[in-house]
From TrEMBL:
InterPro entries: 6-hairpin_glycosidase_sf (IPR008928), 6hp_glycosidase-like_sf (IPR012341), GH15-like (IPR011613), Trehalase-like_N (IPR045582). Residues 10-21 have a biased composition (Low complexity). Residues 1-55 are annotated as: Disordered. Residues 52-135 form the Trehalase-like N-terminal domain. GO terms for molecular function: hydrolase activity. Keywords: Hydrolase. Residues 299-658 form the GH15-like domain. Residues 28-47 have a biased composition (Polar residues). This is Glycoside hydrolase family 15 protein.
Length: 680
């Protein structure tokens, strides 16, 4: 498909004009008014209030953003046609556009003059190419946005960033925007106003030749220079590059922004060819996957594409989300930088990718895990996309934050926290990888041996848990559970490696941990609790059946799943924990965690509550954005997305939940994936 053959849009696409989804269900309770968000009286860095005169937010809803990626960096595009978040050359580099965090922090808009709300937005099927359709009083306009993929281009010398095996395709480091007037006449506006280094710097523009079609923004030391090339004529107005024209029916234009060594297209025909190559790349990639013939297939495919877009292909890292500091609580302080790779995601990522037949991506992520475990290093919970170990956290007080939510943070201080789930995550990943190949590579044995020994050494000590709370360390039950996973999977791998003495020793410790959990981590009702000696519930205990700690028909498993479903929910959606019951070192409440709600779907299937699981899964899928994307949280009652976006862990949990329900519907015997049950 090209811009020369734009097919009509159906009702579903047209319904996205206001950012709503035709699938969205009404909750049983009336919708609550949306939170006002910002701290009262707070203003953005340009002196403007984060709310318009009529009280509406000047910020798009988080779930209304479109997501683009070339598997090396990414961008978020608002419904207005503005790129409002982009970091180059890596996803964790300083931003060049950050309007999503401060309305004066830079943007790049292509769209009709005087019209900000499109009539439809969609991805071209099977791709990460975003298409936006506009209606103006005088005509219709279609804009397509993509981050270009092309043939491998490091031919004369090796890449300075790639550690994984070169493929046929690679990022072009070009954001391409093609425009076509399909009816009537439309006045087109283009405005590019970069604000490098999280809006702490400004650019210097200049023309690159004697004409008007090519300009460059010099960004200083924080980001690479940005080159703009177009079929339009640019004017340089202060810190902006702008272009405008009146388009008539059939007229076409393009705008390309590049930041690497590859040259941007110079003609519209060249732009179409580049767009077609990118479209073919994504469709060829998604065709390699194995997706069930089911109505929910579209959610699985969009989740797979999103996860691919959240990978950093040079190293195989999978980042948790594309953004930093999008608030978990409107106007609150629970704002974190998620542009890094969490080791705990590895088990879910590998299972999700293997289940969908995307083995190359799974292999690359596993290779990244091997890289960070090398040289007998102490394993961290998270790393930079290049494997960096130090992720110093600092704040950006000059930025207003999304709807006034402060602080805006860069880096993540949790990188040096003690969290005992990390060893179990690595060992489970190794076990999944080894099972898929029925062998254990010799190079992995020293790595896994060290991680098992670390779990054995620390399992009885307190930590800060799976949710990285910033209160005092506690004896979190889920941390003990993951230490059990480390010992259990270590024993299985030792047997696979014919190290039977290690297998016997590690299994003995696994049984000791299991007895400790079942003695101290269960209340009088038989419900697994958040921490030893306290009745508080925690959604992480939904992993008890998923990790095969106990059989799904064990009374304690059923009691735990149903207690969380009935007592740790708001409007039927699952909280991580009750903030008033957990010392997480922060103030205020948070939304329901979509990861946990999808975990509940899987856990309900495990205990035989298939109809309840299916109903919840249908509801959760109805909360997807109009582009089938998810943030970290959903606000109960309103369905509004909160937290960083799009969130890899949410999409991984979606894959798990959807496949659980589909397998239950089709009567497949193996409902889960984490291996066999522990003998009881």
């Amino acid at each position: 498909m090209t811009l020369e053959s734009i097919e009509p849009l159906g009702a579903d696409a047209a319904s996205t004009a206001s950012g709503t989804s035709p699938r969205r269900r009404q909750t049983s309770k009336p919708s609550k008014p949306q939170s006002s968000g910002p701290v009262k009286g707070h203003t953005s860095s340009d002196g403007a209030s984060p709310r318009a005169w009529d009280g509406r937010s000047k910020f798009p809803h988080i779930g209304e953003y479109g997501f683009l990626s070339d598997c090396e960096t990414n961008a978020l595009i608002a419904p207005s046609g503005s790129v409002e978040w982009m970091c180059v050359p890596r996803p964790d580099s300083p931003s060049i556009f950050a309007k999503i965090l401060d309305r004066g922090a830079g943007y790049f808009r292509v769209g009709p003059h005087g019209v900000r709300v499109p009539v439809a937005r969609r991805y071209l099927p099977g791709t990460l190419i975003l298409e936006t359709t506009w209606q103006t009083p005088t005509g219709w306009l279609v804009v397509r946005d993509a981050m270009l993929m092309g043939p491998w281009h490091d031919l004369e010398s090796r890449s300075g960033t790639h550690r994984r095996t070169p493929t046929d395709d690679d990022a072009e480091h070009i954001l391409l925007r093609t425009i076509k007037c399909v009816s009537g006449t439309v006045d087109l506006d283009v405005v590019c106003e970069p604000r490098p280094d999280y809006a702490r710097s400004e650019v210097d523009w200049e023309y690159e030749n004697s004409g008007y079609s090519s300009v460059v923004a010099h960004t200083g030391d924080s980001n690479p220079d940005l080159h703009l090339r177009s079929s339009l004529r640019f004017g340089l107005e202060g810190k902006r590059a702008t272009a405008r024209t009146r388009m008539t029916e059939g007229a076409t234009h393009f705008v390309a922004m590049s930041w690497g060594s590859q040259s941007a297209p110079t003609t519209y025909a060249g732009a179409l060819d580049a767009m077609w190559r990118t479209e073919r790349f994504w469709r060829d990639w998604i065709t390699q996957g194995e997706f069930p013939d089911h109505p929910w297939r579209i959610y699985l495919q969009r989740s797979a594409l999103t996860l691919k877009g959240l990978t950093y292909s040079p190293t195989g890292a999978l980042i948790a989300a594309a953004t930093t500091s999008l608030p978990e609580t409107p106007g609150g302080e629970r704002n974190w930088d998620y542009r890094y790779a969490w080791i705990r995601d590895s088990t879910f990522a590998l299972w999700g990718l293997y289940t969908l037949g995307l083995e190359r991506e799974a292999d690359d992520f596993f290779a990244f895990i091997q890289d960070v475990c090398r040289d007998n290093r102490q394993l961290q919970i998270m790393y930079g996309v290049g494997g960096e170990e130090t992720l110093e956290e600092f704040e950006l007080p000059h930025m207003s934050g999304y709807e006034g939510a402060q602080p805006v943070r860069v880096g993540n201080a949790a990188y040096d926290q003690s969290q005992h789930d990390v060893w179990g995550a690595v060992l489970d990943s190794v076990w999944l990888h080894a099972k898929s190949r029925e062998q254990l590579p010799e190079s992995l044995w020293p790595i896994l041996k060290r991680q098992v020994e670390e779990a054995a050494k620390h399992w009885h000590k307190p930590d800060r848990g799976i949710w990285e709370v910033r209160g005092e360390p506690q004896h979190f039950t889920s941390s003990k559970l993951m230490c059990w996973v480390a010992m259990d999977r270590g024993a299985k791998l030792a047997r696979l490696y014919d190290e039977h003495d290690y297998a016997k020793s590690w299994q003995k410790i696994a049984d000791e941990i299991a007895d400790d959990i079942c003695t101290k981590g269960v209340d009088e009702r038989g419900v697994f609790t958040q921490r030893y000696g306290d009745p508080a519930l925690d959604a992480s205990l939904l992993l008890v059946p998923l990790l095969r700690f106990l059989p799904s028909d064990d009374y304690r498993v059923r009691a735990t799943v149903l207690a969380i479903a009935d007592e740790l929910t708001e409007d039927g959606l699952v909280l991580r924990y009750r903030t008033e019951e957990t010392d997480d070192g922060l103030q205020g409440e948070e939304g329901t965690f979509t990861i946990c709600s999808f975990w509940l779907v899987s856990a309900l299937v495990e205990i035989g509550e298939v109809e309840r699981a299916k109903s919840l899964c249908e509801r959760l899928l109805g909360y997807a954005s109009s582009l089938n994307l998810y943030a970290e949280e959903i606000e109960p009652g309103t369905g509004r997305h909160l937290g960083n976006f799009p969130q890899a862990f949410t999409h991984l949990a979606l894959i798990n939940a959807v496949m659980h329900v589909i397998k239950a519907e089709t009567g497949e015997a193996e409902k889960g994936y984490f291996g066999v049950h522990r003998p009881v």
